[in-house]
Amino acid sequence: MSRIIAALQRHAAHAPLKIALQDETSTLTYDALLTEIESLARQLQACRPRAIAILADNGKAWALADLAAHMVGIPTIPLPLFFSTSQIVHVLTTAGIDLVLTDQPERLRAALQQADLPAEPFYGELQRVRLPGVAASTASLPAATQKVTFTSGTTGEPKGVCLGRETMETVAASLGLASGASRDDRHLCLLPLATLLENIGGIYAPLLAGATICLPRLATVGLSGSSGLDVGRLIAALTGWRASTAIMVPQMLQAMVVAGQAGAALPRTLRYLAVGGAPVSSKLLEDAQALGLPVHEGYGLSECGSVVAVSRPGEVRGGSVGKPLPHVRIDFADDGEILIRGTHWQGYLGEAAAADALDCIATGDLGYLDAEGFLFLTGRKKNLFITSFGRNVAPEWVEGELASHPGIAQAAIFGEARPFNCAVIVPYPGTSHDAIEAALDMANRRLPDYAQVRAWITATEPFTPHNGLSTANGRLRRTAILGQYAAQVESLYQR
């Protein structure tokens, strides 16, 4: 049996009136939660879907739909709300989805160009939409697939990572141990539930511990689209919902730190704030800790069921992403590439994978373990460049240092076969040229000479998924950025 469902049954028996889920309108106790999941699971079984997709805002309904499918073993594919029409259609057809649970059926009809698709009530604002045309798809899900999480990838077409129930539940249990999760926690979901990290770390892990999960709409916590953020709403949500735990991406932490340094009152109920999804600079973590924020950096991949390593309360090492989770074993290739063992996945949707590839995941990340078992990342294998002086530079490291300074929102570093490094910088609105120069000077003091930035230009727009200059989780698309600013970058070296 599923460990999560077994845990829900225990909590319903021993603490039936404990609040399990809460959103802006109502709450569900553990007793009521189990009853609702069982009822919705029967609904899904009666529909006999091949696979279902969830296209909806955060809320109790999203969590219930996911848990009901989890209970009866129906493969589930969460759809990010920021996906384009073409990406939604690509996922529906590639995964052979024949049932969609959504709170925006009109958007689904428009994407599929089928205005007459009928929708039936499912739970709350979620409606059930059958996709008869997709059911005949020849797509084949790997055996034991419970969830397909789609990453934005390096092109417009997202790539499906297939995961089994055992893998996700193992990661959730390990996360609970590493974070010290307990039934007294109030976890506030800040990231879209379609994000694997929030799905597993924000729903599954707290439920195993018997905690309360707070599920407001994304707009309530200040998120809009893939990268819009209202930091005032974010801070107000953490305070108002009395969150003890939360997960955020580095840009959210950066905005909170800037607000806190400007005098904003930061939440004081937090005991564990996980930060992941993209590299985090050591300066940003230091600034957050100085403000009293209990930040803990983590690292992971979708292929590993999200988290691989994370720092624990009382076990924080500067510059490290923490120790590997209990079920994870880490090895290294000859070139320093991190290899993950102990996490079995099912492969990519539509691609055959050798059995040994599913048990040993080559991450593409470079790093090392110190003598006490802390994992350090030094860059991406494919992003590493070599200056004309023969020095290896991991751009993520330098970019993290730049973006940790007030005034610099994003930075992309280049220097392949060049005598020095340059940057394309996205400043915060209102930041002056002199302020950026001062930030560069401060960052360069923390960097060795070969990694320092000697010249820079201002970007004309932020790096976002919409303009193709970043992925959905904030990783830069360097080739696209360099292509867009090639002439200006070249001019820096001609001066």
Describe this structure in words.
It is a single chain. The chain is an alpha/beta fold and 495 residues long. It folds into three domains: 3-17 and 27-163, Rossmann fold; 165-342 and 358-380, Rossmann fold; 385-494, 2-Layer Sandwich (GMP Synthetase, Chain A, domain 3), CATH 3.30.300.30. It is built from 15 helices and 28 strands. It has a nine-stranded mixed β-sheet with strand order 2-1-11-10-14-15-16-17-18, sandwiched between helices. The protein has a five-stranded mixed β-sheet with strand order 4-3-5-7-6, with helices on one face. Strands 19-20-22-23 form a four-stranded antiparallel β-sheet. A hairpin with a 2-residue loop joins strand 6 (119-123) and strand 7 (126-130). The longest helix has 18 residues, at 30-47. It is globular and about 70 Å long. The N and C termini lie far apart (67 Å).
**What do we call the CATH topology of the largest domain?**
Rossmann fold
Shape: globular
The average pLDDT score comes to: 91
* Helix count, DSSP H or I runs of 4 or more residues: 15
CATH class of the largest domain, named Alpha Beta
Superfamily at the CATH H level of the largest domain? ANL, N-terminal domain
How many β strands by DSSP?
A: 28
The structural class is alpha/beta
Side by side, the strands of the main sheet go 2-1-11-10-14-15-16-17-18
**Which range does the strand content fall in?**
15-25%
Largest sheet: 9 strands, mixed
Number of domains: 3
Distance between the termini: 67 Å
> Regions with pLDDT < 50 over 5+ consecutive residues?
none
Radius of gyration: 23 Å
**Gross CATH architecture of the largest domain:** 3-Layer(aba) Sandwich
